[in-house]
Amino acid sequence: MAGLRDPAWCYFVHTFAPDPADDGDVAAWCDYGRRFAAAVERGPLWATQFHPEKSGDVGLSLLGNFVDAVEESRRVTRRSRRSEANPTMDKA
After folding, report:
1. pTM of the complete model beyond 0.85
2. DSSP assigned state of 22
3. What are residue 30's DSSP bridge partners?
4. Rg of the chain over all Cα atoms, to the nearest angstrom
5. What does the pLDDT look like over 36-51, one tens digit per residue?
6. Is residue 90 domain-resident?
7. What is the pLDDT of residues 51-68, one digit of tens each?
8. Per-residue CA distances from 44 to 33, 35, 74, 83 (Å)
9. Does any domain span residue 7?
10. Structural domains in the chain (count)
11. How far apart (Å, rounded) are the C-alpha atoms in residues 35 and 2?
Protein backbone atom coordinates (compact mmCIF):
# COMPACT_ATOMS: atom_id res chain seq x y z
CA MET A 1 0.00 0.00 0.00
CA ALA A 2 3.11 2.17 -0.11
CA GLY A 3 2.66 5.51 -1.79
CA LEU A 4 -1.16 5.37 -1.93
CA ARG A 5 -3.10 8.35 -0.69
CA ASP A 6 -5.14 7.98 2.48
CA PRO A 7 -7.99 7.57 2.05
CA ALA A 8 -7.57 5.70 -1.21
CA TRP A 9 -10.83 5.31 -3.15
CA CYS A 10 -11.22 2.01 -5.02
CA TYR A 11 -13.86 0.36 -7.19
CA PHE A 12 -15.96 -2.35 -5.52
CA VAL A 13 -18.53 -4.30 -7.55
CA HIS A 14 -20.44 -6.38 -5.00
CA THR A 15 -21.26 -6.62 -1.31
CA PHE A 16 -18.94 -9.47 -0.28
CA ALA A 17 -17.25 -8.27 2.92
CA PRO A 18 -14.59 -10.66 4.22
CA ASP A 19 -13.74 -10.78 7.92
CA PRO A 20 -10.45 -12.71 8.28
CA ALA A 21 -9.70 -14.66 11.44
CA ASP A 22 -6.28 -12.95 11.77
CA ASP A 23 -6.24 -9.15 11.49
CA GLY A 24 -2.48 -9.43 10.96
CA ASP A 25 -3.21 -10.64 7.42
CA VAL A 26 -5.14 -7.46 6.57
CA ALA A 27 -3.18 -4.99 4.43
CA ALA A 28 -6.10 -2.53 4.08
CA TRP A 29 -9.50 -1.98 5.66
CA CYS A 30 -12.60 -0.43 4.14
CA ASP A 31 -15.44 1.31 5.92
CA TYR A 32 -18.63 1.13 3.88
CA GLY A 33 -21.67 0.36 5.96
CA ARG A 34 -19.32 -1.61 8.20
CA ARG A 35 -15.59 -2.26 8.46
CA PHE A 36 -14.20 -5.14 6.35
CA ALA A 37 -10.92 -6.31 4.87
CA ALA A 38 -10.26 -4.68 1.48
CA ALA A 39 -6.83 -6.27 0.94
CA VAL A 40 -4.97 -9.13 2.57
CA GLU A 41 -1.38 -10.31 2.47
CA ARG A 42 0.27 -13.40 3.90
CA GLY A 43 3.72 -14.29 2.60
CA PRO A 44 3.59 -14.52 -1.19
CA LEU A 45 -0.23 -14.35 -1.29
CA TRP A 46 -1.80 -10.95 -1.97
CA ALA A 47 -5.50 -10.39 -2.61
CA THR A 48 -7.81 -7.42 -2.97
CA GLN A 49 -11.55 -7.31 -2.48
CA PHE A 50 -11.79 -4.43 -4.93
CA HIS A 51 -10.85 -4.12 -8.61
CA PRO A 52 -7.45 -2.40 -8.95
CA GLU A 53 -7.78 -2.42 -12.75
CA LYS A 54 -10.92 -0.25 -12.42
CA SER A 55 -9.65 1.98 -9.61
CA GLY A 56 -7.89 4.68 -11.62
CA ASP A 57 -4.57 6.08 -10.39
CA VAL A 58 -4.89 4.29 -7.04
CA GLY A 59 -5.28 0.94 -8.79
CA LEU A 60 -2.36 1.62 -11.14
CA SER A 61 -0.16 2.52 -8.16
CA LEU A 62 -1.20 -0.63 -6.33
CA LEU A 63 -0.49 -2.81 -9.37
CA GLY A 64 2.88 -1.06 -9.76
CA ASN A 65 3.68 -1.85 -6.11
CA PHE A 66 2.79 -5.49 -6.77
CA VAL A 67 5.11 -5.66 -9.81
CA ASP A 68 7.93 -4.05 -7.78
CA ALA A 69 7.44 -6.56 -4.94
CA VAL A 70 7.49 -9.51 -7.36
CA GLU A 71 10.67 -8.21 -9.01
CA GLU A 72 12.37 -7.78 -5.62
CA SER A 73 11.29 -11.27 -4.55
CA ARG A 74 12.75 -12.72 -7.74
CA ARG A 75 16.07 -10.90 -7.14
CA VAL A 76 16.25 -12.24 -3.58
CA THR A 77 15.40 -15.77 -4.75
CA ARG A 78 18.10 -15.68 -7.46
CA ARG A 79 20.72 -14.44 -4.97
CA SER A 80 19.72 -17.17 -2.54
CA ARG A 81 19.95 -19.89 -5.20
CA ARG A 82 23.39 -18.67 -6.30
CA SER A 83 24.59 -18.71 -2.68
CA GLU A 84 23.26 -22.25 -2.17
CA ALA A 85 24.99 -23.42 -5.36
CA ASN A 86 28.29 -21.82 -4.27
CA PRO A 87 28.51 -21.65 -0.44
CA THR A 88 31.92 -19.93 -0.60
CA MET A 89 30.48 -17.02 -2.58
CA ASP A 90 30.84 -13.63 -0.88
CA LYS A 91 27.47 -12.61 0.57
CA ALA A 92 28.08 -8.88 0.21
Report:
1. no
2. -
3. 36
4. 17
5. 898 888 887 888 888 8
6. no
7. 888 888 988 888 888 888
8. 30, 25, 11, 21
9. no
10. 1
11. 21
